[in-house]
Amino acid sequence: MKTVVKFNDFSWKYKASKDLVLKSINLKISQGEFIGIMGPTGAGKSTLCCCINGLIPLRTRGWIIGNVEVLGKNTRTAKMTELGQRIGLVFQDPETQFIMITVEDEIALGLETLGLDRAEIKNRIEWALKLVGLEGFEQKSPDELSGGQKQRVAIASIMAMRPEILILDEPTSDLDPIGKYEIIEILEIIRKEFDLTIILVSHRTEKIVQFCNRVILLDNGEIKFSGETSKFLKHEELLNKLGIYIPIHLSQNGISQYLKFSEQISTGKYITADQDPIIEISNLSFTYPNNTQALKDISLKIFNGEFIAIIGKNGSGITTLIKNFNGLLRPQQGEVFIRGNPVLQYSITQMAQIIGFCYQNPDHQLFKNTIREEIEFGLKNLKFPDDEIQNRYNEIIDLLDLRKFEEIYESTFYLSKGIRQRLALASVLVLKPEILIVDEPTTGQDYRMIQEFMKILQDLHELKHTIIIITHDPRVIAQYSKTVVILDDGLLIQKLPTSEFLKNEKLQKIAAYILM
C-alpha cells in the first residue's frame, strides 16, 4: 500500500522551548489508514500533527533533525500552499482557524484557493454543512456559535476541500456525546468513499478503538507503541502508567472496574431552599443580535456550597446562561442576583473575588507571555503585597502541577490546550473566589489530568466553595456533581440531584448523556 507519511529519525525543539518536544520519531502511514494518536497531555501529539501538514518547520521556528516526507514531498522544502491544499488540519481549538465573518465565507475561503467556480463552491458548502449537521448556518457568525458548533464548522471547512490526508486534533472535545459519535461516524464514511487517510488525536479510547485500525501512543515526545488497535488494549500496564482511560466494556478486568466506578458515583448532599441563594435567576431571557434566542424565561436558584453540573446538548444556551451570572452579558429580560444584590451593582474588582470564571476556550482569558505573568496578573491588578503574590503563586503552580511546564516552555504560546486550560484555572483560583464556574473543565485533558483537575474542584467544594461546571463528560457528571441543571433549546428543563438524574432515562436523553 502507498506510503503517504514517513518520519525518518525526526526530532524537533521549538525555539522557545528548552527540551526536545519530539525525539527520534520513525513512522510510516499508508493511504486509506485511520490512525489514532494517543498519549498524556503534553506528550507531543499536536506537534506531531503540525509536522505532517508542514506548519513545522515551514511556519514555525525551531531546531530540527531528520526529515518528514508527506505525499512524496519533503516538508523542509515543500511549499506551504501546496501542502495546505492536500492536507487538512482541524486544530484542537477551532477558533484559531476562523478569520471570516460568516460560516459560508469561512468554508468558501479554502475553496477559492482551489480555483473552483461559484456553482461548485456553493455545492461543496451545502454538502459540508449537511455532513456535520449544520444546514442553514451559512449566514451565522462563527463568534455566535457554541463551542461544539464551532468545531463542526472547522471540520466542514476542511472537508469541503476534499483533502488527501485529514488530521484532526481533538476535533470533538467540545461536543456532547451524541455529537462526538456522529462526527467520527461521518469521518469513517468519508474515508471509505474517498480513500482518505485520517489521523485522529484523541483522549477518548472508545472512539479510537471503534474506528481506528492502528494506534500510535506518544509519551514525552517518543513513540511508546505503534500497532493494531486490538493489540493496543492488551498493554493495560503501560496504558495505566500513562493515564490512558480504558472503557469498562473494553477492559480485560471490566467487572472490577465497573464496581469500582459504581462506588464513586456522587452521593453528596443535595442542598435545598432552606437558605438564601448565592445566585438567583428570575425570568431571564436573552437574544443575540442575529435574533437567536439563547435563553427563554429561566428562573433558577443556586445555593452556597453546591456542586452543580449544568448540562445539555450543544447550543442549549448554557454558556449564555453562565455569562449572565457574572455580568459578562447583561440581562435583557429578567434579573440576576448575586448574594441578594443585582449583578450589575458589583464592580469588576468585586466580581473577580466573588465569581471566578474559566472559559471554555482558555485563550479567551490568557494574554500574558509567561506562566508566572499570567498567574500574577490578577493579584498585581488588585494591589496584593509582593510577599502574598509570591506565596499564592507558589501555592497554585504546585497545586496544578504547572512548574515543570514553566521550566520547559519560555512562552505560553507553545503550551497544549490542556495545559492552557489548567493555566487559565490557576489564574482564577489564585484570587480564591467564593464561586467557581468552569466551562468544559475536561477539554484537552488526558484521563489522569481530568481526575487530578476534578479532585482540585472537589477539594475546593469541601472547603465550602460553590462549584459550577459545564460539561459533556458523563463520567465527570456522575462522579463529581451533586446536582444537575438541565437546559434544552434555551429552556430550563429541571434541577435535581445527580443520583435521581442517573435513574431517569428520559432526562438523560434530553441532556445527550451517554455513560461510556
Q: What is the tally of beta strands?
A: 20
The proportion of residues forming helix, as a percent range, comes to: 25-40%
- pLDDT under 50 segments (min length 5)? 253-263
- What is the averaged pLDDT score? 88
Secondary-structure-derived class: alpha/beta
Q: Ends: how far apart?
A: 35 Å
Binned strand content:
15-25%
Task: Tell me the number of helical segments per DSSP (H or I, 4 or more residues long).
Answer: 21
Shape: globular
Q: What strand order characterises the main sheet?
A: 6-7-8-3-9-10
Main sheet characteristics = 6 strands, mixed
- Radius of gyration, taken over Cα atoms and rounded to an integer in Å: 23 Å
Written account of the structure:
By secondary structure, the chain is an alpha/beta fold. It is built from 21 helices and 20 strands. Strands 6-7-8-3-9-10 form a six-stranded mixed β-sheet, with helices on both faces.
Q: Keyphrases for this structure?
A:
516 residues, alpha/beta, six-stranded mixed β-sheet, 21 helices, 24% strand, globular
Briefly summarize what is shown:
With 516 residues, this protein is an alpha/beta fold. Helices cover 38% and strands 24% of the residues.
Can you lay out the helices and strands and say which pair or pack?
Elements lengths: L2 E12 L7 E9 L3 E5 L6 H8 L2 H4 L3 E9 L2 E2 L5 H7 E4 L12 H10 L5 H14 L15 H13 L5 E5 L7 H18 L2 E5 L3 H7 L2 E6 L2 E7 H4 L3 H6 L12 H11 L12 E11 L5 E11 L3 E5 L6 H8 L7 E6 L2 E2 L5 H7 E4 L12 H11 L4 H14 L3 H6 L8 H13 L5 E5 L7 H16 L3 E5 L3 H7 L2 E6 L2 E7 H4 L3 H6 L6
Parallel strand pairs: 3-8, 3-9, 6-7, 7-8, 13-18, 13-19, 16-17, 17-18
Antiparallel strand pairs: 1-2, 1-4, 4-5, 9-10, 11-12, 11-14, 14-15, 19-20
